[in-house]
Amino acid sequence: MLTAESLGKSYGDECVLSDVSFTLGGEESLAIVGPSGCGKTTLLYLLSGLVRPDRGRALVNGVPVAGPSPDISIILQDYGLLPWRTVLDNVALGLKVRGVGRRERSERARQQLAELGITGRDADYPANLSGGEQQRVAIARAFVTRPRLMLLDEPFSSLDALTRERLQFTLLDVWKRRKVPFVLVTHSLEEAVVLGKRIMVMSGRPARPVKVFDNPGFGNECILDTEECFDLLRQLRRTVEEVW
Questions:
Q1: Same structural domain, 128 and 178
Q2: pTM of the full structure
Q3: CA-CA distance, 167 to 23, in Å (whole number)?
Q4: Which domain does 99 fall in, by range?
Q5: Among candidates 105, 78, 70, which has minimal Cα distance to 91?
Q6: For residue 219, is it left (φ>0), alpha (ψ between -120 and 50) or beta?
Q7: Residue 57, SS3 per DSSP
Q8: CA dist list (Å): 72 to 45, 80, 100, 229
Q9: pLDDT tens digits along 165-213
Q10: Vertex 102 angle, CA 99 and 105, to 5°
Q11: How far is CA 210 from the centre of its chain?
């Protein structure tokens, strides 16, 4: 579905990413962990087409990513909601850009909001929502266009621990029903274990893949309480300590 082939990116004389290669299947998720500032967000921008690589290429279903595409949704750390638009209009924005009629896009936006536990807030503005509610709206906006691929850049990093955990499992629940493949960037090893069917550890700059772990417990809502999880976290921590 998604293929990264020897992706590389430099800014001036500094190489940020070097020789990043991986594949992502049509019903898979990949969690990427790495030290702060190593280039994880840059990698997502390359995959989304927002930034052009200096070396290598990204392909979706065999087609090179040459620029932003309606088939790819991205969720940012700051939610990316437009403060002057209502909740409903924020969620329906991508549908409007695609030319979907007002009635259909409103219905689809309301259905997606309900799926994520947001009802009765259609006319509210982002400033009236809590951080967790804003992120639910951002996730709804990403899913409502029925993308082929989702990219998530530390989407829960600014939330309190309990809200963060709830939204991790909300995202997982929606994924189980939609099976939209996604790439998640996170600093949290526990979050990577909850949301990554595979987990890729990146080195510091220039960032490059160090090791990829399979996650046999992916999809289990009780994964954080399992021996499989504890074992995988131990392996991840050992790898991280060696390369960061």
A1: no
A2: 0.92
A3: 26
A4: 79-146
A5: 105
A6: left
A7: strand
A8: 11, 15, 17, 30
A9: 888 988 888 888 888 999 999 989 999 999 999 999 999 888 999 999 9
A10: 75
A11: 20
